[in-house]
Design brief:
heterodimer, A: alpha+beta, five-stranded antiparallel β-sheet, four-stranded antiparallel β-sheet, 10 helices, 43 strands, B: four-stranded antiparallel β-sheet, 1 helix, 29 strands, disordered N terminus
């Protein structure tokens, strides 16, 4: 647009520039009216060559073919239709007529208001804005596009359904070759082995830590008694990192969305998932899908925050479905979470198929299936007042809890529902219940429900357990009460893949820990108590992922007391302390365990690696230590029988590893000795230098001291020499050892 | 004036620590070593200093009276009354006749060690943070803080042979480039040719005493990251050790002539005090969580421990516990057979090493 144009246009509209106060015009932010700024225009000069300038013309097909008499009527109809969708340029409708028959040809061209391009300055922008406001033609720029989309398929009558195309498209479509050319088959490029870390020769595990701005992935090398770095990156993530459930990916969070990393040798970015300001992520158990969560604080504090959740296919990066709504719809039940909703909002059904996921909202449970990403049977399940749901870790069975209603007239209920049939497999009514917590055993064989009941006075509560045997016929339920009914239950944990569970109960500061088994030699069908350990400083339970071993941990208030306990033998293997420890995590193989002090307080941040039986292996201190996570491993391919066989013949295998261990420790002590020797030599060089300088300066010093001879200094020197003999002794002794 | 105030107390051997050290093949320093607990100050200790013969120990504290102790049994010999503010630092002449003290009452005083008499008062416009006698004791370097308009500075005073002739004029005044930061310590370099200073601006500087020019300063990369709290030099002036509050809570060993970083020792709490054994290759770091940040949950959280490191290997050897506040001052007896520590808790703990200390192998 040139200045002349502007003047002409203004004159047409009867605007006097002298009366316009440009400063009073506020440009809406982010709006450029399709006018590029000067610098953009420079970059886009090349492109403009390809622009035919017909972008605002559409072609409408399948119009009725009418004779001359009806031409104007049809023209009127078409104008009427398209005037609703945009402003047609003056004389912008052209309906060609067959020169012989004077009949229309059944199509027409419509030109919309021309988008303005080529302006150069802010002045032009303002003028454009001003004119737009006067003309009241907001949004006319995309009119052509808009009109095309909106009117394509418009039914004028039964036999005339509009086919609308952009004029520009014709050129493109005409150029399509008549003959079909098969697309070139691209040669298959094998992808990276994303599970290469599993083939580590030393069978080590990886862990990721975040401290300060850095995120680091390490091998836990217990032979070297130190972590071996794999990958380190400052500002890798903007909030936290998370492994996928089978360990293939590491997900990082950014302003723009989430990204997953992985690869054979180092961590490269495999895929990005666009979700602005993502706050939380969650994988489906088979790591096929990634759920991302974002909530926006409302400007008005009385409103609920807005929540947006997206489900992505991890491998293709495609968004499968997104859910939007206010936080109220997402915030029922579930443990913890962030402001806005309890996380995870969507709970995935167990197993590796990633078939179903469920969402709990008020009075409804919505179960979706991943084939179509829609509700099963197209509708949610109505369950009045349901407050908690929990999937079996292996089967598509959903357990749900409904509290008492009507002041105790309607009992509380725990039910098991089969998905997708929505058949209720089992249910149990419970009376005078204050709260329930559901705990599934990791192989889905048992479900424990911790039930807090009111005492008769309703003033306090006591706890008991309802134990469901899922895999047995009719799902029998057993009731378990603790020896002392009034004990508070502090923690509960199933043995992974096992039949036992541990409970911390009693009063702080020295509660008891009890172990129960669902299956003992004498009592196969009944739960029985194995042992109670009295007065332990523990408030959390951490079973080894392979079972058998458990750590009774006293975190927070107990300053990090650790007791490594063997449940098979019912004996304590070791007690230790990681002072102020806040987190404990077993490695996926159950060989090592990491205890960490994270940055909840400033003191002694860092982590310690222990063997399963409580021997401290090494300790790393890091300031501002935020997170530690072992890389999970996918389940083993070995059958249970094979595993058992290996366990029996373990001695055969362990010989090899013991020999390797020995080699490494020899090598290490050798290296250590070399290092020490070098350090000592270097130090001695310094000392020699100092000594000679001191000797040189002796006379000057004596003068400074008014001639006093410092014989004592000589003594001091002798003392130092003695010291060196001492140190040489040290070296000799080590040599003798080896 | 010779009021004895001696008490002893066990070291409170900590099982956890003990086991940990055993398991990590370290040896503990203390099994029978019993410290002498010297309670003479009412406020936190600030500085400790042995005389050259190692029979006297001078202590400075935030109460106003520097105190003299017998370094062997902790008997209190006397106090030096006259300051009207916290006493930050002191130094004793080679012949143990003169004591110089620097105080928050904006003075540095010269004392007669034996009689406890004040010989001279140097007046400054701000508190005197550190003092150090030169080789030959004819000069003293005194650092002063910034205060109301007065910038922090290093003053060199001539010390007269006869106190009658003493004058208050400075021979040389050096001003730190960063005038608003305290200079926590300045000491003489070899042969009085240089002065080494370190303070809140984290930089160690070496000054020429003839010209007053800045000769060297520590590199940002290798140097401390936070305030330098303490500086102690080797007996032969060849190297020195600095302690700092920086995040790794480091102490660094430097060559005094070239300002080359030779070793650094890392601990987890801020370092307030450092000392070097004159006998063995050991350095000691003292400190602990800042008094204002001390948690109330557990006494172990503060780490009020004097930590011993192997000078050459930079590895921790062990620790001596006992203070229930941060350690502000550390000093080795020149014979290397005992050391003392002074804490925020107001106690001086005097430790004589057991024989097994001298046979530590690592």
């Amino acid at each position: 647009m040139e200045v002349v144009d502007i003047d002409a246009r203004a004159a047409k509209l009867g605007i006097d520039w002298s009366q316009v106060n440009f400063d009073s015009i506020q440009l809406p932010p982010g709006e450029d009216f399709g006018i590029e700024s000067d610098d953009e225009a420079v970059y886009q000069d090349d492109q403009s060559e390809f622009d035919t300038g017909f972008g605002n013309i559409i072609v409408v097909d399948h119009l009725p073919v009418v004779p001359k008499e009806k031409f104007e009527k049809l023209e009127g109809v078409v104008k009427k239709i398209y005037n609703q969708l945009g402003v047609i340029k003056e004389n912008g409708l052209w309906m060609p007529v067959d020169p012989d028959t004077k009949m229309t040809l059944g199509y027409c061209f419509i030109e919309f208001n021309t988008p303005q391009k080529g302006a150069r300055t802010r002045l032009f922008l303002m003028v454009e804005y001003f004119l737009r406001v006067s003309l009241n033609v907001w949004g006319s720029l995309q009119e052509a596009q808009n009109a095309k989309e909106k009117s394509h398929g418009y039914k004028l009558d039964k036999s005339h359904i509009f086919a609308v195309n952009m004029f520009d498209d014709f050129d493109r479509l005409m150029n399509v070759k008549e003959e079909w050319e098969p697309p070139q088959a691209r040669p298959y490029v094998p992808g990276e082995n994303l599970q290469k870390w599993l083939t580590d020769e030393k069978a080590r595990d990886q862990l990721v830590i975040r401290s300060g701005p850095d995120t680091e992935v390490f091998w836990n090398d217990t032979r070297q008694k130190a972590p071996e770095p794999v990958h380190k990156r400052p500002y890798w993530t903007e909030s936290y990192v998370q492994w996928s459930p089978l360990g293939t990916y590491l997900v990082t969070l950014h302003k723009q969305g989430a990204a997953v990393w992985g690869g054979a040798d180092t961590f490269t970015r495999l895929m990005r998932y666009q979700h602005s300001m993502v706050k939380l992520v969650d994988f489906s158990p088979g790591e096929k899908y990634l759920v991302t969560y974002h909530s926006q604080e409302p400007s008005n504090p009385r409103d609920a925050s807005k929540v947006e959740i997206k489900v992505f296919d991890v491998r293709t990066g495609r968004m499968m479905r997104d859910f939007k709504g206010s936080a109220d719809e997402f915030s029922i039940g579930g443990p913890g979470g962030v402001a806005g909703a309890s996380w995870p909002v969507f709970r995935w059904a167990g197993g590796k198929d990633d078939k179903y996921f469920a969402k709990l909202s008020k009075n409804t449970i919505s179960v979706y299936e991943t084939e179509t990403f829609s509700l099963i049977d197209k509708k949610s399940m109505k369950v009045d007042n349901v407050v908690d749901i929990c999937w079996s870790p292996t089967d598509s069975i959903l357990s749900l809890f409904v509290p008492e209603q009507g002041g105790g007239n309607q009992p509380a209920k725990v039910a098991l529902v089969q998905i997708p049939s929505k058949v209720e497999l089992r249910q149990k009514n419970l009376f005078s219940v204050s709260d329930c917590k559901m705990y599934w055993q990791s192989s889905g064989e048992y479900l424990a429900v911790k039930v807090d009941r009111y005492t008769k006075t309703k003033k306090s509560t006591y706890s008991g357990f309802e134990l469901f045997r899922i895999k047995e016929r009719d799902i029998p339920i057993e009731v378990l009460e603790l020896d002392n009914k009034n004990d508070k239950i502090i923690a509960f944990a199933w043995e992974p893949k096992g039949h036992r569970f541990a409970v911390i109960h009693g009063d702080q500061p020295r509660p008891d820990v009890s172990f129960y088994s669902m299956k003992t030699a004498q009592n196969t069908g009944r739960v029985s108590k194995l042992a109670t350990l009295k007065a332990k400083q523990a408030n959390a339970l951490f079973w080894s992922p392979t079972g058998k071993y458990i750590i009774l941990a006293g975190l927070k208030g107990f300053n990090g007391q650790l007791e490594f306990f063997n449940v098979d033998e019912l004996e304590t293997m070791a007690t230790a302390e990681h002072f102020m420890a806040t987190d404990i995590e077993w490695d996926p193989t159950g060989r090592y365990v990491a205890t960490a002090v994270t940055s909840v307080h400033e003191m002694e941040n860092g982590f310690t690696i222990w063997s399963f039986n409580g021997i401290m292996l090494y300790r790393i201190l890091k300031d501002h230590f935020f997170q530690l996570a072992w890389r999970p491993r996918p389940p083993s391919f070995l059958t249970a029988e094979k595993e058992e066989e290996i366990a029996k013949t373990l001695k055969k295998y362990s010989k090899k590893y013991e020999a390797e261990d020995q080699d490494v420790s020899l090598l290490l002590s050798e290296q250590d000795r070399e290092k020490r020797k070098a350090l000592k030599e270097e130090w001695e060089k310094w000392v020699m230098q100092w000594k000679s300088l001191h000797e040189e300066e002796k006379l000057v010093r004596q003068n400074l001291r008014d001639g006093e001879v410092s014989d004592v200094e000589e003594d001091e020197y002798e003392a130092k020499e003695v010291e060196f003999e001492d140190l040489i002794d040290v070296t000799e002794e080590i040599v003798q050892e080896s | 004036m010779t009021m004895a105030c001696v008490s002893t107390e066990g070291l409170g051997l900590d099982g956890r620590r003990f086991n940990q050290m055993r398991s990590s093949s370290h040896q503990t320093l203390e099994t029978r070593m019993r410290p002498i607990l010297m309670k003479g100050h009412e406020r936190p200790l600030t500085f400790l200093r042995y005389n050259r013969d190692g029979d006297l120990l001078f202590s400075c504290a935030k109460d106003h009276t520097p105190t003299l102790w017998l370094a062997d049994n902790g008997e209190r010999l006397g106090t030096y009354g006259g300051h009207n503010g916290a006493v930050w630092c002191c130094d004793v002449s080679r012949d143990s006749s003169r004591l110089v003290t620097g105080s928050a009452d904006q003075t540095a005083k010269l004392w007669d060690v034996k009689s406890g008499k004040q010989l001279f008062t140097f007046n400054f416009g701000s508190s005197a943070r550190s003092v150090d006698f030169s080789v030959g004791d004819h000069l003293a370097v005194i650092t002063t803080d910034h205060f109301m308009g007065v910038s922090s500075a290093i003053h060199v005073k001539r010390i007269a042979e006869d106190p009658q002739d003493q004058v208050g004029d400075s021979v040389l005044v050096l001003q730190s480039p960063d005038r608003k930061k305290k200079i926590n310590r300045a000491v003489w370099g070899p042969l009085n040719q240089t002065i080494v200073s370190g303070g809140e601006d984290t930089v160690i500087r070496i000054w020429d005493t003839e010209t007053g020019k800045l000769l060297k300063q520590s590199d940002e990369e290798v140097g401390h990251k936070e305030a330098i709290t303490s500086l102690c030099k080797a007996a032969d002036d060849s190297h020195f050790l600095t302690g700092s509050h920086d995040k790794t809570a480091k102490a660094c060993l430097w060559d005094m002539r070239t300002l080359t970083l030779i070793k650094s020792y890392t601990t987890v709490v801020p370092v307030n005090a450092v000392a070097m054994s004159p006998l063995l290759n050991h350095v000691v770091l003292g400190g602990g969580q800042d008094a204002s940040a001390v948690t109330t949950t557990d006494h172990r959280a503060g780490k009020f421990e004097a930590k011993f490191y192997d000078t050459i290997l930079e590895e921790e050897i062990g620790g001596v516990k006992g203070h229930f506040g941060p350690i502000n001052a550390l000093a080795f007896n020149p014979d290397g057979k005992s050391f003392s520590s002074g804490g925020e808790d107001g106690y001086v703990r005097l430790h004589h090493f057991d024989s097994n200390y001298f046979n530590i192998k690592i």
